[in-house]
Amino acid sequence: MAITLSENVIELLRNRESKKVLATVDKNGIPNVSFKGSITVNEEGKIELIELLETSQTNKNLTYSLWFDKTVAISVWGEGGTEYEIKGIPRKVHIDGPYYEKKYVESLERNPINDISGVWIIEPTEVRNQTYAERKKEQDEKYPIIGHLDKDRKL
Amino acid sequence: MATKVENWREKEAGIDEIFEKYPEIPKIIILKTDVHRRGYVLSEKAERLLEEGNYQSEADTIFGEKLGAKKIPIGLTFRDGTSLIGGYRSNEGIRDHYVIDAIDGKFYVTDNGNVYEEVDFWKEPDFYHKKTSKGTPMGEVVNVRPQRLNFAISRVCHFWDTPGEGCKYCYVGINGIEATKKNIPALYDYDEIAESVAEAIKQQGRFSMIMVTTGSILTGKKVFDDEVDEIIKAFEKVKPIFNRKDLKVQLIGSAYDKEQLIRLKEATGIIGYTADLEVANKEAFEWICPGKAKHVGYEEWKKRLYDAVEVFGRGNVNTGIVGGVETAQPNGFSSEEEALKAVLSEAEELAQHGVSVAYIVWGICGIFKDQVPPSLDYYIALAKGLDEISRKYGLEAYFDDYRRCGNHPNTDLGRI
Ligand code: SF4
Asked: What is the homologous superfamily of the domain B138-414 according to CATH?
């Protein structure tokens, strides 16, 4: 089910300073992870990324996911340790047309050796706040049995 | 008059059954193949939407009709970036067409009340209506696909000079005869081609490859010598446009001997070479392509492809086949199972020598205008079988893939 990303997640994904990682799998289930600085959110609220290399494993895996409705995962990490994981399904790749050409020109401006393969559009299906401090608090509240006793020792 | 397959929906596995039968094949590729096989028409709403957009229409080249008429869609793009070349009203009257409908301002493939996939039509490039210095619209000199430029050397295929020797499924040959009757020169104007290519590639990100083809020219000291000479002449004009010696070009030409191949590669710098065997079975080839059989021969055609691997390198040579034409009657295979076995066994032999095979869906025309293309099941089994062979022999075909060509269901499968 497609979801709408919240404003803070959109901001984090659009921020050029955020670290963004894309995880995909191939048709045999073998994972692949790569940094994708181009990950952003487009005007329709969908995740967008540029794949530069036609022959990359990421390109193959995104194609596989689009063909077979398989989920990919993005991890985004920002200022102050804010971290989210977003899952989604690739729904479209622009390999031609005005939008592709616009992105192609922008990409060349960033680095003249670039030659983009496609502009991928990913429909978000799930978001999880992975910020450590918040996840720790959540775990401690929900699973009080977990954790080491030395930390519970009366001082 | 096309041969209608009565009650075909009851006789053949429908697309939904094929989706289930081949869960490992993407539905988009199955759909694209079937839309090609059955052809498509536009709903009235889709026709209106097409007229409104900056979409490309048929052009006056070796591949199609004149610019400027009512918009006739020339190809479709699917969500995964793959293309369908042609398909509009193709194979009309044989089985029911798919209908492209407009829903909420977007195009969708529909059939029998089912909405299958969003698609788009190809966009017109910037150079298309510009004129060459001789006044010809450039879109009538150089033809395009979403990421590819096409031009041709000879619009006439001289296998047709001797009655009965043209390939029986071919429309290029028939168009060539018509052009000759109208006194249109057989050879394209290479200055106009070079001008059009130079203009076209100014559009950033629009084109990633050039495909050059030609009707066969049989004259010269050896068969095809003049064809090779003409291609070289064209490249003398085209080459200076580029800043590199090896060009992102695929030539689809006749099967040249080794001396011709070396001469061609050295003079032009083209990277990819294709000589279409068209029919991957000796007996069917000799019946369907009598000119090729007489002037070159089936085994020699294959040998020349193997020689081409030595000249152009592994991964840069392939051969096209007209998928399903081997089932043409009365002399082709009457069983789809046997046809598939025969084609895949030939494809394996070719792959062992470094030649990959790319099939296109058979568009009924030419002398074979009354024939019937095989079932969807056949086409999907063929795509799967050819893809498996390419993987087994490590043959990648980037020069003929979804982006640079888009016309081959089996090379689409090679994307993952
Ligand atoms: S060689 Fe055969 S398929 Fe090619 S243009 Fe000539 S007749 Fe047509």
From this structure: Aldolase class I (3.20.20.70)
Answer yes or no: are the C-beta atoms of A82 and A132 closer than 8 Å: no
User: B157 CA to middle of ligand 1, Å?
Assistant: 6
Q: pLDDT by residue (tens digit) across B318-330?
A: 999 999 999 999 9
Question: Looking at the domain that runs over A7-145, which CATH code has it been given?
Answer: 2.30.110.10
B203 and A97: CB-CB below 8 Å? no
Q: Tell me what ipTM this predicted complex has.
A: 0.94
Would you say B68 and B81 are in contact if contact means Cβ atoms under 8 Å apart?
Answer: no
Instruction: Quick: pLDDT tens for A119-129.
Output: 999 999 999 99
Q: B153 CB under 6 A from ligand 1?
A: no
Any idea where the domains of chain A sit in the sequence?
Answer: 7-145
What residue spans define the domains of chain B? 8-121, 138-414
- Within B112-208, strands assigned E span 114-121, 143-145, 148-152
Of B153, B172, B277, the one to substitute when testing ligand 1's pocket (max ligand atoms within 8 A of C-beta) is B172
